[in-house]
Design brief:
Helix 3 (about 45-55) crosses helix 4, helix 8 runs antiparallel to helix 18 (about 460-480) and helix 13 crosses helix 18. Helix content is about 30%, strand content about 25%. The chain is rod-shaped, with a radius of gyration of 43 Å. It is built from 19 helices and 41 strands.
Length: about 800
């Protein structure tokens, strides 16, 4: 290597070189691309586009020009980057759903709130909006500094004069290196009122200042929930806003309700929002929507969500707020360039920086205009001398050999300056008429007034700020409009349980493990012997096996045949219509392979002093504290240890002081005190509750609690009620007594229930037919009778289960419900 090259080498650690290079790159991105200037609220690309359009005369009163010409001019003179980036920036400044006060007037397809892209720049046209002209006003009066463009060929403005506080009015967003800005738009009259208050009273308290500006005002309107997040970023420059779609309710003549979305949160894609709602319906994560369509047009936004009958619109709406972009969070970061340095500013600091900028603009503009006026006055003074001595001046000019001699002679004779003398020599003969001489005098007098006014402005900061205030008020009058975003009361993070309305639901599960919930309002009471209605459509070879009533806000403890407990909220069970198949319970619970759900227990609270009593197919009883089941793991927890060949069939919540009845398939029952079953741990096996005869098995368990009667029902639709007193209390472990005379006509026992006189019953068949009837319509009989016909079954159908609607008011009616 040559010696001179080695002498130019500078030893340097690569870590230092990388660090310095990265810092240089970061600052280039921060200052030259990603962050807005606090003074005009613009990034370099926005500023260059507006300046270029102003340069080529694309003013509001001029014809539109192709966007391609604007993009080309910006690229050629100011912004040496990709044409796509420049055009996208231009498009955004023309979109009324992106900017609160658009700066560019676009003609053609400039995109839509559905996420549609703008047409190519060869198809669209553009010109400046009047508000953009306000931002560029007086740029030719030395009001702002200019700097060289990328190739030093021309000068470009480093900031615009900006008569409006654009940073707050239109907001800004951008991601730099290691920092980001996200400034929401605001209402122009409110921001200007706030700025004027600072001019009038610089020491105004924060509280008084904040009272003048309600909060962000987004172009799409919608709701802003609460003022806490607003006040946070007013004070600190950071805050968290919750935006919600605006929804109105419409009711059709048939009574069905619709939710109509008329405004959506800022920067939410409407088409994507509709897709989100449709996906939730498809996945059955929301229930109650019968139709969804977008009826938006030029008149405004209108997304219609039609609801099914009896759908709780409040609960549905809040679910949509939780699961879709109908509610979004807008994180505010008021980061902008202040004196070329990125700073997180609060509201007062942003307004003070803008007012300082406007003060400097007014000062420089006034100085420029004063200098121009004084120069013109000086010329007019020379012209007045010329008019008063016109004959002598004409003679001097005529007698001079050339212009230079004439100029020097006039300057010496009348004491004129070079500029005045040149103006006299350039004067047209028409200025010598009487009318023109008067015009010179009038112009001179007006100039003297203007000079006095401008000097007064320059001599007093107070006067300069009055000019700022006056121009702000003019902007408010010309461009101000009402707020679009409505601020409502604070909304906490949505808890799904809080938005679910409490209602009794029928929970149905089939033999093959399909589950759903249906409102009890769906079923209409019938008298004994009715045919019923379809309560659930089942697949081929499937049938309804279990059914019970629970409130939407209760827990359901699912007990499997293998003795495992799983935990779920009732509202977590998908809701379906009468003929809906439901969803596989395995999709809701993490069941073990080969296991099935055997029993369900609705629980509101896991209280101390409460117990879970469980019964198995082989007559084993188990009692465990309810609090031990409060927090099941994902795969469930052991509820009962089971002997080989046994399985869990039923479970109930007790207080430890009840009587218990176990009934078997062959019509036997035993009644004993729950105290005879000692408390055990979750993994224990339990003790004998009833001794079974050969071929028999337990089908149900009752824990007495309401001093009612014992209802028994058979697979062929027979049943009866008996007094509990007919079953004497014995010790557990006995053979029991006859509870129903099982014959070929009645079929085997399938269900036992404790009922009161005013209870309503739900009877469900294997093929899925459901009938609702009052318990008072079933006679009380002796233990050994076979009962009466409860339900007329179709050929080949059998009764599967019975459930009680406790304390439900019975309404008259004999009509058969039609599907």
């Amino acid at each position: 290597m040559p010696t001179d090259m080695r002498e130019r080498e500078i030893p340097r650690y690569i870590e230092d070189e990388m660090k310095d290079s990265y810092i240089d790159y970061s600052m280039s991105v921060i200052v030259g691309r990603a962050l807005p200037d606090v003074r005009d609220g613009l990034k370099p690309a926005h500023r260059r586009i507006l300046h270029a359009m102003n340069d080529i005369g694309l003013l509001p009163n001029r014809p539109y020009k192709k966007s391609a010409s604007v993009v080309g001019d910006v690229l050629a003179r100011f912004h040496p980057h990709g044409d796509a980036a420049v055009y996208e920036t231009l498009v955004r400044m023309a979109q009324d759903f992106s900017l609160r006060y658009p700066l560019i007037d676009g003609q053609g397809n400039f995109g839509s709130i559905d996420g549609d892209q703008a047409a190519a720049y060869r198809y669209t046209e553009a010109r400046l909006k009047p508000l953009a002209v306000e931002m560029l006003a007086d740029i030719d009066k030395d009001t702002v500094n200019f700097g060289p463009n990328f190739d030093n060929s021309i000068q470009e403005p480093l900031v615009l004069p900006s008569r409006v506080p654009n940073l707050l009015v239109n907001g800004s967003s951008g991601i730099a290196v290691g920092m980001a800005t996200n400034i929401p738009p605001h209402n122009l009259p409110e921001v200007i009122d706030c700025a004027i208050r600072l001019i009038e009273e610089p020491e105004v308290s924060d509280e008084d200042l904040y009272s003048l500006i309600q909060g962000p005002d987004f172009p799409g309107g919608a709701y802003l929930c609460g003022r806490e997040g607003i006040l946070d970023y007013y004070r600190t420059g950071r805050g968290r806003l919750i935006l919600r779609a605006k929804v109105i309710r419409e009711t059709k003549k048939d009574g069905r309700e619709s939710l109509v979305i008329t405004e959506i949160p800022y920067q939410v894609n409407k088409a994507r929002l509709v897709e989100q709602i449709a996906e939730l319906v498809k996945k059955k994560e929301v229930e109650g929507i019968s139709d969804l369509r977008d009826e938006s047009d030029r008149e405004g936004m209108r997304v219609v969500i039609e609801l099914k009958r009896h759908c709780d619109s409040d609960a549905l709406l809040n679910t949509l707020y939780k699961k879709t972009q109908m509610q979004v969070t807008f994180g505010v970061i008021l980061l902008a360039l202040l004196d070329g340095v990125p700073e997180i500013l609060n509201l007062r600091q942003i307004l003070e920086a803008f007012l300082k900028h406007r003060h400097a603009v007014i000062q420089r503009r006034t100085a420029f205009e004063l200098d121009k006026a004084e120069k013109r006055a000086h010329i007019l003074e020379g012209l007045k001398v010329a008019v008063e001595n016109i004959d002598e001046i004409v003679q001097i000019i005529k007698g001079s050999r050339d212009v230079q001699i004439a100029k020097e002679t006039l300057m010496a004779r009348f004491g004129l300056s070079d500029e005045q003398t040149q103006a006299i020599l350039d004067m047209r003969l028409a200025r010598l008429t009487g009318l023109e001489r008067n015009k010179v005098d009038e112009e001179y007098k007006e100039l003297l007034k203007t000079i006095a006014r401008l000097r007064g402005i320059l001599e007093s900061r107070r006067n300069r700020m009055e000019v700022v205030k006056q121009e702000l008020n003019e902007g408010k009058e010309k461009y101000g409009d009402p707020r679009r975003t409505e601020i409502i009361e604070r909304v906490e993070d949505i808890d799904l349980e809080d938005i679910v309305s409490e209602e009794d639901m029928v929970i149905i599960l089939t033999h093959r493990g399909y589950i759903k919930r249906i409102s009890t309002r769906t079923y209409r009471q019938q008298r004994r012997g009715g045919k019923g209605i379809i309560g659930m459509a089942t697949g081929e070879g499937d049938f309804v096996e279990h059914m019970f009533i629970a409130s939407t806000k209760e827990y359901i403890l699912f007990f499997t045949k293998q003795g495992i407990c799983h935990w779920l909220k009732v509202y977590g069970v998908p809701e379906g219509g009468r003929e809906a198949k439901g969803r596989p319970v395995v999709n809701l619970l993490n069941l073990r392979e080969g296991d099935e759900v055997a029993a369900y227990v609705p629980v509101r609270h896991f209280e101390d002093g409460k117990f879970l009593l469980m019964a198995t197919r082989n007559g084993i009883m188990k009692k465990t504290k309810l609090s031990g089941f409060a927090n099941p793991r994902q795969g469930g927890i052991i509820a009962a240890g089971l002997e080989e060949g046994d399985e869990l069939i039923d479970a109930a919540v007790t207080d430890g002081q009840r009587n218990v009845i176990l009934a078997t398939r062959n019509g036997h029952a035993i009644r004993f005190r729950e105290e005879n079953v000692r408390e055990m741990g979750r993994t224990a096996v339990g003790v004998h509750g009833i001794k079974l005869r050969k071929g028999d098995r337990v089908v149900g368990m009752i824990v007495e609690g309401r001093t009612g009667t014992l209802l028994v029902a058979t697979e062929k639709g027979y049943g009866k009620r008996s007094e509990f007193g007919a079953y004497r209390l014995t010790r557990r472990g006995g053979l029991g007594v006859i509870t129903l005379k099982v014959t070929e006509k009645t079929g085997h026992l399938v269900a036992i229930k404790e009922v009161l006189e005013g209870d309503n019953l739900m009877l469900v068949s294997v093929q899925g037919t459901v009938i609702r009837m009052g318990a008072q319509g079933i006679r009380v009989m002796g233990r050994s009778t076979q009962g009466v016909k409860l339900m007329n079954l179709n050929e080949g159908d059998l009764l599967a289960d019975v459930a009680c609607l406790f304390e439900e008011k019975v309404e008259g009616g004999t009509e058969e419900e039609t599907v």
